[in-house]
Specification:
binds zinc ion; single chain; alpha+beta; about 25% helix; two-stranded antiparallel ribbon
C-alpha cells in the first residue's frame, strides 16, 4: 500500500492547484453526501476530500458543478461502489428480464 498523504497520481484532467481548496471552501468543508436521516439532508461530517459527483469515466464534466466535498468515509464508500458497479457492467447479464406485467394476459 502506498503511504497516505502523498499524492502519487497526477491531478485529474481539468483540476489545478486551486480546485480542491475552492470546492472545499464552497461546500464549507462539510460532506455533501445526501443523507435523509439528517436534518440538513446531507452527511454534514467534516470534509477533506473533493470528488466527482459523476465520475469522469461515466461522462461527468470537469466543472465545479460536478465536484463536491466528501468526508473520508463517504469518499471511500463511493470509490468502492463505483469499482463494484464497473465490475457488474463487465459481467454478462445473468438473468433475462421478466416480461412487463402489462403484457401478461
Ligand atoms: Zn460523509
Amino acid at each position: 500500500m502506498p503511504s497516505q498523504g502523498r499524492r502519487s497520481q497526477p491531478l485529474p484532467k481539468g483540476w489545478d492547484r486551486q480546485t480542491r481548496p475552492r470546492i472545499l471552501k464552497r461546500d464549507r468543508h462539510v460532506c455533501q453526501w445526501p443523507d435523509d436521516g439528517n436534518p440538513a439532508g446531507i452527511c454534514g461530517e467534516p470534509a477533506n476530500e473533493v470528488d466527482h459527483k459523476i465520475p469522469a469515466h461515466l461522462g461527468g464534466p470537469e466543472t465545479d458543478d460536478n465536484y463536491w466535498a466528501l468526508c473520508r468515509w463517504h469518499h471511500a464508500r463511493k470509490t468502492a461502489r463505483e469499482a463494484s458497479a464497473a465490475a457488474h457492467a463487465r459481467a454478462p447479464r445473468a438473468r433475462p428480464r421478466p416480461p412487463h406485467p402489462g403484457l401478461l394476459p
